[in-house]
Amino acid sequence: MSRQALLPGLLLLAAAVIPYSSARGQAAPVIVGSKPFGESFLLAEMFAQLLESRGFQVDRRLGLGATEIAFKALRTNAIDVYPEYTGTGLLAILGKRPSSDQRGVYQEVSREFLRRYGTRWLPPLGFQNTYAIAVRRTTADELKLATLSDLARVGERLRAGLTPDFIGRADGLPGLKKEYGLQFRSVRALLPAVKYQALAAGEVDVIDGYSTDGFIARYDLVILQDDRLFFPPYEAAALISPRLQRDQPAAVAALTELSGLLTETSMRRLNRRVEVDGVPVARVAAGQLLALGLTRAPAGEAEPNAENTSDRGVLPYLWGQRNTIFGLTLRHLLLVGVSLVAAIAVAMPLGLALERSRGAAESVIRGVGVLQTLPSIALLAFMIPLLGIGVIPALVALFLYSLYPILRNTYTGVRDAAPAAVNAAGALGMTPRQVLRYVRLPLAAPVIMAGIRTAAVINVGTATLAAFIGAGGLGDPIAAGLALSDTRLILSGALPAALLALGVDGALSLCERAVTPVS
Amino acid sequence: MRGKLPGARRIAGVTEPLSPEPALAAERVFKRYGAVVALDGISLAVMPAECVALVGESGSGKTTLLRCFNRLVIPDHGRVAVGAVDAANLDAIALRRQVGYVPQDGGLLPHWQVQRNVEMVPWLRGMADVTELADRALMLVGLEPALFRARWPGELSGGQRQRVAVARALAAKPEVILLDEPFGALDAITRADIQRAFAAIQRELNVTALLVTHDLNEAFLLADRIVVMRQGRVEQDATPNELRQEPATEYVRQLLLRARVVAA
User: Fold this and answer.
1) Residues A118 and A35 occupy one common structural domain
2) Is residue A257 in some structural domain?
3) Which residues, 6 or more positions from B222, have their beta carbon under 8 angstroms from its beta carbon?
């Protein structure tokens, strides 16, 4: 009664959640993506709402891994549009040397992206989000700092707190030193999440930021002007997939309406509302589209969360989001269930086969174990050229991560199952197949189930990363929350994920008890 | 001692024809594991209904010889016969289902209740009345079926487990039963009980028994004939009385002394 009870249970689970995944539309919706940080979410949401207001059906895949993942997805038509920056296109995607010629950079990426990848840059949105060297207003006033050349005069008296990325890259600190002859008294590596607080608290005097950061206004910082035009231009623009370009010119035209309408000042204000004031992205985007005259006020179309939710407690917030969370949890279960069932279907027979050819066993198991050591994000990114983004590559990655514990436990469980009983069964005339079926497998069942439990719990956790390749699930609010510094949003994914892990573990422990032979 | 002679019962049994064929026979059997010689050209014959004990120290080859008779061990040279048929010509699985076997640790399947354990061989042989056969075997070993049928091996005492193991070996009514140190792990009182029970069963069923033991007292208690093994050969093959009175070698004498079978 052991395995017979387990497999149908898991299949049932999969069957229950599969319909959810096939709910997607008929007339090719426009898939809007974004990278996992606040401004990218905001711009993508503006794209999405603009398209919706023009009658297009929109599918949001926000918070995709990073440049690598988002751009691969766009190239392969897994998404249709996402906001990108010309400087990033030039340096990170084309791999060219930095240039400070704003027009020239835009023309170069436009030409090269179309030629190489068939993707198209729409005219810039109108603002740059470049590196910005910022100091406290008091520091600027005291030392009479307005430009980076001013900073170079007094740099040796100041302590810098810079992101590790900036300290390393050619268009960061090394170039800055060369261009301006800049020296600091000390340089500390600080993560983006803490550098603003460190500057405000006087722990450091100079930080690197982005020119449109919402925090610059909040902490009353002064951005020093790049008077020698050292930083390459990072003009924001919509980047369009080959498919959208070819099939839906009307959607491309709609997106172009936003070109040239956003300024650095307005973006800083909008980012501040999202990142600092905690206003939902959708609301900020809607307000801005309205203010720009691109959409009309919704007539009586009441927004579900119209009241300001930012001061509500976590639990009421979660309760308010329960329908969303429920949907995400189902999607999460789909990812976990299907990948786990597939892993069981492969790893158990493989474990049994290895038990019969023990010479090969250790090397095969170790080989599968190597998969386990690959960083999840790297594995997910690796999947994109092969499988695109979305559910399929996520399932494959989760499947690969689930193999090892099940394989290892099946093999050792069957190998080490009650040797006395195994020997006696053989000596009394059971065939090796009968010994496996009636003795080894039932006795190994608890160990195998323990492997499945381990795989399932790892799987629930890893599946949250599937959000970075647009597979949905409880990782969605986590990725968005991290990007927007929104703790409640993070919790609305993380808490259900933790509960799900506990629940799955508990359910499987019942299965484990059910298959454990009395002894 | 019972002082029973080989074949005695066959004389008493009116309908049974006199058969000169041994139930188990080994002729010049060799078996080596790497550099270690386990069986060094050993020969042995066990007559029907006879109980023969193989005794000797660890490494004497007694268990290896026992396992030749259900093809758990394949000899390098020599002939092994079961019921006058060369074991090499028998299908190993079929042979094992014909021959009862009791390992030292019982080897009960811990996830099967007593009844299913005892039914195992009749079930494997596709016999019709498995439950009846199992009940009968349980009664033979002194376990009331109604009380023990539904028990798990883990719920039994050591002695009860070995009784179930004996019942399992006997359930399909084999003509031959092999016992590998069957009672060695039990405490003295339990062992004495189960030895008495086994002696009675063996006599009642006329089953041929080959018993491996390191306990000479057990051999004297149960066996019609005792084969002392040393380094893969027979040191002495004799009835208990002969053995006691005329140890063939100094080695056998020392063995008897140590087991306190004879006084110094």
Assistant:
1) yes
2) yes
3) B51, B53, B195, B198, B199, B202, B209, B211
B69 touches chain A (CB under 8 A): no
Q: Mean pLDDT across the stretch B200-228?
A: 92
Residue B70, amino acid: N
- What pLDDT, on the 0 to 100 scale, is given for residue A207? 93
How is residue A155 annotated by DSSP? G
pTM beyond 0.80: the answer is: no
Q: Which residues in chain A are closer than 8 Å to B172, comparing Cβ atoms?
A: none
Residues A317-321: what's their mean pLDDT? 80
Is A254 in the same domain as A371? no
What CATH superfamily is the domain B8-104+167-258?
P-loop containing nucleotide triphosphate hydrolases (3.40.50.300)
Which residues in chain B touch residue A426, judged by CB atoms under 8 angstroms apart? 72, 96
Among the partner-chain residues B121, B152, B154, the one whose CB lies closest to the CB of A428 is B121
Cβ contacts of A434 on chain B, cutoff 8 Å: 124
Q: What is the CATH number of the domain that holds A371?
A: 1.10.3720.10
CA B223 to chain centre: 10
- Segment (H or E) for B234: strand B233-238
Q: Which of A375-384, B8-17, B231-240 has the highest mean pLDDT?
A: B231-240
Minimum-distance CB partner of A519 among B93, B103, B154: B154
Q: List chain B residues with CB under 8 Å of A518.
A: 110-111, 152, 154
Query: What is the three-class DSSP state of B125?
Result: coil
Question: Between B188 and A15, where is the model more confident?
Answer: B188
Predicted confidence at residue A219, as pLDDT, reads: 82
Contact B103 A426 (CB under 8 A): no
Q: Could you give the strand order of the β-sheet that contains A81-85, starting from the edge strand earlier in sequence?
A: A58-61, A30-33, A81-85, A236-240, A120-121
Question: Nearest C-alpha of chain A: how many angstroms from B95?
Answer: 7
How many CB pairs lie under 8 A apart between chains A and B? 68
Tell me: do A383 and A485 sit in the same domain. yes
Select the residue of A421, A426, A431 nearest B110 (Cβ to Cβ).
Answer: A421
Share of chain A above pLDDT 90, in %: 30
Are residues A509 and A438 part of one domain?
A: yes
Phi, then psi, of A109 in degrees rounded to 5: -65, -40
What is the rounded distance in angstroms from the CA atom of residue A393 to the CA atom of residue B262?
A: 79
| CA distances (Å), origin A231, targets A131, A187, A478 | 7, 19, 32
Mean pLDDT, rounded, of chain A? 83
In angstroms, the CA A489 to CA A482 distance is 8
**Residue A218 sits in which domain range?**
131-224
- Answer yes or no: is pLDDT of A26 > 80: no
Query: Chain-centre distance of CA A195, in angstroms?
Result: 22
| Statement to judge: residues A55 and A182 lie in one domain | no
For residues B213 and B51, the answer to whether their CB atoms sit within 8 Å is no
What is the pLDDT averaged over residues A436-456? 90
A89-101: per-residue pLDDT in tens? Answer: 888 788 887 777 8
Taking residue A315's Cβ as centre, other Cβ atoms within 10 Å add up to 11
For A427, nearest residue in chain B (alpha carbons): B96
Do B124 and A428 lie within an 8 Å CB cutoff? Answer: yes
